[in-house]
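Sequence in, structure out.
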Amino acid sequence: MFRIIIFFILMFIMGNGQGKSYHKIDSSFYSVLLTTHTTGKFEEGITKTEELMKQSQRLNYEKGIATGYINIANILCNLNKYEASLQYAALAEKTMLRIKDNDLKATVYIESGKVYLFLGLYETSLNYYNKAITASQKIEDTERKINRLHYAYACKADNFSYLNQHDSTYIYFHKAYNAIADPITAANIADFFIVNKKSELDSAEHYLKSALYLYSLKKNKYPLFQKLIVFQKYGDFFYTKREYKRSLDYYYQSLALSRQIKRADKVRDMYQLIHKSYKALNDVKKTKEYIVKYAELNDSLDIANKRALNVSVNKLLKDRDNVKKKISDSNYTLVGCFCIIFLLLSVLGYRFYKKNKKETELQNEYQQKKITQQEIEKINMECKVNDAYHEVLQLAKNNDSSFLARFKEVYPEFCKKILILYPDIVSSELTFCAYLKLNLSTKDIADHIFISKKAVQVRKSRIRKKLNISSDEDLYIWINNL
């Protein structure tokens, strides 16, 4: 009896000590990730996270292992290494399924959603964010619940911005800001006014000032990435106000931070924004310098993203196959039970069932192969169309002489229909129609071909007249419906 009592006392002490170890590991994971983003030392962050994962493995602490996987996925995503990030996110999700922890679930779903967002798989990303919100709402700890909801709302708003659903973008950024007011969310709300409500730039300035104020209050709390975004949005603000030299000051500060935290995608974006500012200032040399830098970096990132996209597509198809396999395995169990019953009733009934079962399996297999092939073809086609569109758009923006020839290759049916309606059309008019097909605004067309906005409007009127387009009809919608 005495030995049994001693045994339970020892077990209690060991359990208590293990609980303290778990808490220490959780705190260390959080501290490492925060320090990594604040300092921009990503390689060091991965090394320290791996050390914490080894401690978790020795203690058989599955939550720690899952947290390590998702934190590394987060860091790799910030380094634009989406293929590797996706693999770590998948490992985190697999480990997470064995643990009942809504805080962990929300975190894993958010980080997985971010990777799919950057890969352009917006619907998949949105599904993960919705699952993250559902899991966040079940968290018992109020502070953690608010933190996760803030993060999930902000990510979902970002997703809607990529889909050009501006009202939803604004709603979810405000939900995030109401949950926790932080610099990057304030900057993103400011961006909404800069892009979509240019007549309300005073509101944009208000949120930008709030963003800088919030950052100055707790510099050590917020990652450098938040400061980077605030400076970028300030640059956009002054560019919209046509104060191009002031916009350049902020873009260069944002570029320096992008390099410091090794965010190649943000370096690329800054190159493009700096190029635009120099172009507005008519600085030909600097304009050319930064568009070349942008093009070179964009090409290298595109190659990496396509490789990661193939991995993500294969994962989606594999996950779908696994779900169907589980359903199939469950069906086999039921079928076995029914077979026993049918065998007891009659041999004839069993044979009839076997025959129908075989036919059903063959049909399901055929349908599955057909669906999978269609999905792969659809994804590949979307990738090709997106690549061709961006290539033609870039040629248009550069006023490249090869633009029209490449446009004809990408949109042959459109060109044929225009020629049928207007057989005598000349190259310059067809080029202008191509700009409309690409949805370039009056300002963009004027900037790219170096003419005034008024001249662009005159050309639009001529096109309407020659193509017999009613003044009541939207020219862009008419062109895109051809």
